[in-house]
Write a structure and sequence with these properties.
The protein has a single domain, classed as Alpha/alpha barrel (Glycosyltransferase), CATH 1.50.10. It is built from 16 helices and nine strands. It has a three-stranded antiparallel beta sheet, with no helix packed on it. A two-stranded antiparallel sheet has the order 1-2. Strands 3-4 form a two-stranded antiparallel ribbon. A hairpin with a 2-residue loop joins strand 3 and strand 4. The protein is globular and about 60 Å long.
């Protein structure tokens, strides 16, 4: 009980939250960010050949690929679309549109991944949003094309389904026994498919609701991938997350936590934590658009909102309490050499330390989630709590959009430095003279930094609030 109480004590927060930051005050950083962003996109466009595969992360400042699953191509082309939204430069719209048309069809029907919300919302979804907002001319056949892609993608994602007593989940690329926390952020494609009136058709023409699968996956993730300080196991700390949850397919029973990219099943991989913050916060916003009748048979608005809000707040608080003063986390809160770093939570992050890498990509994702959670709470009348989360997100953004995280070197193709992909597999580049990976970027980190920056830029300009769904 004392551990749980201390985690909820604001006095023990690690992030030094700047209460005075606003989107307008960040405007000079945002404009500089998008100036650099455009240079990086054009560099990749000039030098990258599709025969290499999909760019995933940088080595010595140049994007390279790493075959595992195809989950970053949508971020590559989606980045160009976001750049157009921010700058109005038609060169980037041309890249995003043409490359989506040429390369993204296989992602729509890809039955082997849980990443549809990443690849296809970032491309087809963003192009559709621009047309709906009037930022590009409306063409009905083009809109039909985007919407068909999103409908099919949502259904394919929903079809990766494992049933368990009382619900089920969209299973990861590891197989039907495996639930990844990442996928809660990929639920956005089911939400859009549902808004467009689409369903997944099963055996004997059974109509399967995309909203029902979204809700059940969110509930299963909340129950098994997130901890609430309720003594579930010896390492049950409020707000921490497990990357993977394993189920027995014979009877659907939960067996144990696991981790693919974190240090251990009983420590918290911070990018997975960030996916949860952002995913649940976005879904809270999406549920505002739904009618009570749509949610009645799924448990009702009150119950579902409570579940998502509990998950969002718990993970947000854990992130705030386990990040450095400037809002950047170590790649895993239980990393093996973290004890050598002393009281690192009382200092600004040091990506060039000798013990454990930070992960800026986790920060890019978490910052957006924190801001969205804060906005949701403020709009719900919880102004004090909402302000805490929103200002924490703005504090992280201010860190990311400046050195040593903003990549200002013209020869470096990455935009946000000090991202980590797969520490256990040793895939991340360690510069000569260093003991840990640092100084590199990732396609998901750069994309989510752009999404974060665009959301704030639009706010600073007085433009409409950016969401993946239709209000």
């Amino acid at each position: 009980m004392s551990m749980v109480a201390s985690l909820s004590d604001e006095f023990n927060m690690a992030i030094k939250i700047n209460q005075n930051l606003t989107a307008k005050k960040l405007l000079p950083k945002l404009e500089r960010f998008f100036d650099l962003s455009g240079q990086k996109i054009l560099s990749i466009e000039e030098k990258w050949h599709t025969s290499k595969g999909t760019p995933v992360f940088t080595e010595k400042g140049q994007y390279t690929t790493r075959g595992w699953t195809e989950w970053t191509q949508g971020f590559q082309f989606g980045s160009a679309i976001l750049q157009f939204d921010a700058t109005g430069d038609d060169r980037f719209l041309d890249i995003g549109y043409k490359k989506t048309l040429k390369h993204m069809a296989s992602h729509v029907s890809h039955i082997g991944v849980h990443d549809h919300g990443f690849n296809n919302i970032s491309t087809y979804g963003n192009l559709r949003r621009l047309m709906r907002e009037g930022k590009v001319p409306h063409h009905s056949r083009e809109m039909d094309f985007y919407e068909l892609a999103l409908k099919v993608s949502g259904a394919v994602q929903a079809a990766r389904w494992t049933s368990i007593p009382g619900g089920g989940y969209i299973y990861s690329f590891n197989g039907p026994h495996s639930l990844f926390i990442d996928t809660v952020r990929s639920l956005r494609v089911l939400a859009v498919g549902y808004q467009l009136g689409h369903s997944l058709m099963g055996e004997k023409d059974r109509e399967i609701s995309l909203l029902e699968r979204l809700v059940q996956h969110a509930q299963t993730t909340a129950e098994y991938c997130i901890y609430y300080g309720e003594c579930r196991d010896h390492y049950d700390v409020l707000g921490r997350t497990a990357h993977e949850s394993i189920f027995n397919l014979n009877d659907g029973s939960y067996r144990c936590p696991n981790s693919q990219q974190g240090y251990s099943p009983f420590s918290t991989w911070t990018r997975g934590l960030a996916w949860a913050i952002c995913g649940y916060s976005e879904q809270l916003e999406f549920f505002v658009t739904l009618k009570d009748a749509e949610l009645k048979t799924l448990g009702g608005r009150k119950k579902l909102n409570a579940m998502m809000l509990k998950s969002a707040k718990a993970t947000a608080d854990f992130y705030i309490q386990n990040s450095c003063l400037d809002g950047i986390p170590i790649w895993d809160t239980g990393a093996p050499n973290i004890h050598c770093m002393g009281s690192y939570l009382t200092k600004r992050s040091n990506p060039n330390n000798h013990y454990e890498p930070v992960d800026s990509s986790a920060a890019t994702i978490a910052a957006q989630g924190l801001i969205r959670l804060g906005n949701y709470l403020v709009n719900s009348g919880e102004k004090l709590a909402g302000s805490k989360y929103r200002q924490a997100g703005l504090t992280i953004a201010a860190t990311l959009f400046d050195e040593p995280y903003l990549s200002t070197a013209s020869k470096h193709q990455g935009l946000v430095l000090h991202s980590i992909y797969h520490r256990p597999n040793g895939w991340d580049y360690v510069p000569r003279g260093n003991k840990i990976p640092c100084g590199e970027s990732s396609m998901w980190g750069d994309y989510h930094a752009r999404e974060l920056a665009l959301m704030l830029l639009r706010e600073a300009r007085g433009e409409s609030y950016m969401t993946f769904f239709d209000y």
